[in-house]
């Protein structure tokens, strides 16, 4: 009798689960065939030689920036922006964003730290840590997920709003829905004007300017590709695909301003998500599952070097994520590459040869 009532209970729970409204309005998407980490993307063990700077408190320095004195900055889950000495031994809180989640970080020419915060928008911090809000919306459409940025030589800030529907804790829902809620924008400090460059992007993520600042890249995490938006020349105001069908989810991208882009891959593509994408009702069911039951990142550490033609020129891997994992940013300073992570309690430094 007890087993019978348990069965009734489970049946009722399943019925409620099936009829309960979906958390997303999913559409069908046919992902390109995943070729995996083969050919130019083939595995190596280069990141096993990286230096790990463990955080004394907190986790998730999603992006990393280094100031003129060699001090290292990272934004954490709890809203703090921390500052480490160049050897990582001395760590302090540089600023705290109440109710925020700092993601993209970049210094401007005046030494201000510009931050893309998932909840608070585009922010600026003076060298003393005083915060100024630069932009929170465009034409009455608020940023729901300010993500990454890069700064041009004229001071103009190019940044992404990953999704205007879902915020950072619900990023999986945006990827599952596959409707393209992301934007590429620019902010001009001289005028205070925010401009929309591209709309309808599939989870707009990492941002990087080319050496001559004639184009800017924006990662579309939900399409395994990088889009290029032309800023100068006969193609100005148009966009095209810089590289497509990546073997993982592209997150942060940065430029060393000498012709090389560093692309962070926090996870390989997830076969379960690729299989579900063509079937909207199945994705709707997945969206109702607890987060721990939804398709998630696969532990791995990967950074890809690309030239300005979109060709792979270098790969750095920790294939099992034993030392370096869920890399969400890669910033080159001199001959050092600094790696951030959305989840790890560390900042990683790798010396380029």
Can you walk me through this structure?
The protein is mainly beta and 353 residues long. It has a single domain, classed as TolB, C-terminal domain (Neuraminidase), CATH 2.120.10.30. 11% of the residues lie in helices and 39% in strands. The chain is built from 4 helices and 26 strands. The strands form 7 sheets. It has a 4-stranded antiparallel sheet, with no helix packed on it. A 4-stranded antiparallel sheet has the order 2-3-4-5, with no helix packed on it. Strands 6-7-8-9 form a 4-stranded antiparallel sheet, with no helix packed on it. Strand 8 and strand 9 form a beta hairpin. The longest helix is centred in the first third of the chain and has 18 residues.
Topology:
Blueprint: H1 2-19, E1 51-54, E2 64-66, E3 72-75, E4 80-84, E5 91-96, E6 102-107, E7 113-117, E8 121-125, E9 131-135, E10 137-138, E11 141-142, E12 146-151, E13 157-161, H2 171-177, E14 182-188, E15 193-201, E16 204-209, E17 215-220, E18 225-230, E19 239-243, E20 253-255, E21 260-265, H3 271-276, H4 280-288, E22 301-307, E23 312-318, E24 327-333, E25 336-341, E26 346-351
Antiparallel strand pairs: 1-26, 2-3, 3-4, 4-5, 6-7, 7-8, 8-9, 10-11, 12-13, 13-14, 14-15, 16-17, 17-18, 18-19, 20-21, 21-22, 22-23, 24-25, 25-26
Helix pairs in contact: 2-4
User: Going by CATH, what is the homologous superfamily?
Assistant: TolB, C-terminal domain
Helix-residue proportion: 10-25%
Share in β-strands: 35-45%
Query: What's the overall average pLDDT, rounded?
Result: 94
**What count of structural domains?**
1
Main sheet, how many strands, which sense, barrel?
4 strands, antiparallel
What is the name of the CATH architecture?
A: 6 Propeller
Strand order of the largest sheet: 1-26-25-24
Ranges with pLDDT <50 over ≥5 residues?
3-18
Distance between the termini: 70 Å
Q: Which structural class do the helices and strands define?
A: mainly beta
How many strand units? 26
What is the CA-atom radius of gyration, in angstroms? 20 Å
CATH fold group: Neuraminidase
Tell me, what is the CATH class?
Mainly Beta
Q: How many DSSP helices?
A: 4
């Amino acid at each position: 009798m007890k087993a019978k009532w348990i069965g009734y209970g489970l049946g009722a729970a399943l019925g409620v689960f099936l009829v309960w409204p979906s958390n997303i309005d999913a559409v069908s998407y046919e992902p390109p065939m995943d070729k995996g980490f083969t050919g130019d993307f083939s595995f190596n063990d280069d990141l096993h030689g990286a230096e790990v700077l463990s955080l004394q408190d907190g986790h998730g320095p999603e992006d990393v920036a280094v100031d003129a004195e060699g001090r290292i900055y990272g934004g954490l889950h709890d809203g703090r922006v921390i500052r480490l000495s160049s050897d990582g031994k001395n760590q302090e809180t540089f600023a705290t964003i109440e109710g925020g989640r700092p993601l993209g970080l970049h210094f401007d020419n005046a030494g201000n730290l510009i931050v893309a915060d998932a909840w608070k928008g585009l922010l600026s911090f003076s060298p003393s840590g005083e915060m100024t809000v630069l932009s929170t919306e465009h034409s009455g459409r608020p940023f729901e997920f300010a993500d990454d940025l890069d700064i041009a030589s004229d001071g103009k800030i190019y940044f992404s709003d990953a999704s205007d529907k879902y915020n950072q804790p619900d990023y999986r829902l945006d990827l599952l829905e596959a409707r393209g809620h992301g934007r590429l924008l620019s902010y001009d400090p001289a005028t205070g004007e925010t401009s929309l460059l591209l709309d309808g992007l599939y989870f707009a993520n990492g941002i990087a300017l080319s050496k001559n600042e004639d184009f800017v890249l924006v990662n579309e995490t939900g399409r395994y590709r990088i889009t290029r938006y032309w800023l100068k020349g006969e193609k100005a105001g148009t966009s095209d695909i810089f590289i497509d069908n990546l073997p993982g989810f592209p997150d942060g991208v940065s430029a060393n301003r000498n012709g090389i882009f560093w692309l962070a891959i926090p996870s390989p593509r997830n076969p379960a998500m690729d299989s579900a994408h063509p079937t909207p009702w199945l994705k709707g069911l997945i969206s109702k599952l607890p987060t721990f039951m939804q398709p998630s990142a696969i532990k791995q550490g990967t950074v890809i070097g690309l030239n300005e033609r979109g060709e792979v020129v270098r790969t750095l891997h920790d294939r099992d994520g034993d030392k370096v994992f869920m890399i969400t940013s890669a910033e080159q300073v001199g001959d050092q590459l600094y790696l951030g992570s959305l989840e790890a309690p560390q900042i990683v430094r790798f010396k380029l040869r």
